[in-house]
Specification:
CATH class: Alpha Beta
Order of helices and strands: HEHHEHEEEHEHHEHEEH
CATH topology: Bit1
Number of strands: 9
Number of domains: 1
CATH architecture: 3-Layer(aba) Sandwich
Oligomer: single chain
CATH superfamily: Bit1
Strand content: 15-25%
Structural class: alpha+beta
Radius of gyration: 17 Å
Shape: globular
Number of helices: 9
């Protein structure tokens, strides 16, 4: 099944307006900690952002009668927008005082917040930088452990780290939606293990036609409209294809 969420702060395709587009629009804010002297590795930041999305989706406050549940429903009833901003020092400390969840990777830290209206950001987050968030991998990422879900990035696209963090967050969310309650609980109880890697050029075409969850970008920032950005390969979903 192919899924078409909007990407980081983007609008949906103008020719494909649906009830989701007419609904009030919300955005899921994520803030990555990038200290000047010790920025995280790119892959670590991407994996931590994807886990942060899963953590808030699986949090008890996000479901049923939880305090964030209505906001989460309103957000998911519209386009699943995500915006990644960066913070350091006092900015990061102020962001940490807002309601949310901080998720730690190997060295990366990402704080995810309950959805906010598209034009209703808290001032502590609205002032944070969103563009130009880029990171490098000083060393090649470690081999992927067997059975770990993988979010595969399109090898033909050049995305900033901030853009890619939002895209892998979309991919993780689409995989979550496809899983049964039991499969979600197992993933959550294991701590949401996952890997983010760039697919080999020859494998990318196979992945996009595999029936696995596929993210297409609206193309209003950085890349062309309709670009396929991420394929989410969860073992439970691969078994169905």
């Amino acid at each position: 099944m192919s899924h078409v969420p909007a990407s980081t702060g983007d609008s949906p395709f103008q020719s494909e307006r649906t009830a989701r587009d007419e609904a009030p629009q919300f955005v899921l804010p994520l803030v990555v900690r990038i200290e000047k002297a010790a920025p995280p590795a790119r892959t670590d930041a991407l994996e931590t952002a994807a886990r942060a999305v899963l953590v808030i989706l699986g949090d008890e406050r996000s479901v049923g009668d939880g305090e964030w549940a209505q906001l989460m429903r309103d957000w998911q009833d519209a386009r699943i927008r995500k915006v990644v901003r960066r913070a350091r020092g006092a900015e990061w400390r102020r962001a940490g005082e807002l309601d949310g969840i901080t998720v730690a990777g190997k060295a990366a830290e990402v704080r995810v917040f309950p959805p906010v209206p598209l034009d209703g950001w808290p001032k502590e987050l609205a002032r944070l930088q969103v563009s130009g968030t880029d990171l490098d991998d000083p060393e090649a990422p470690a081999p992927i452990d067997p059975g770990v879900p993988v979010l595969w990035l399109n090898p033909e696209l050049d995305m900033s780290a901030g853009k890619a963090m939002a895209q892998v967050g979309h991919g993780a969310q689409l995989a979550w939606w496809e899983l049964s309650d039991e499969q979600r609980a197992a993933w959550r109880d294991a701590g949401f293990p996952l890997a983010v890697r760039t697919a080999e050029a020859g494998r990318w075409g196979e992945l996009t036609t595999s029936g696995l969850p596929l993210v297409r970008d609206a193309g209003f920032t950085e890349i062309a409209p309709g670009s396929c950005t991420v394929v989410a390969e969860h073992p439970a979903l691969r078994a169905r294809t």
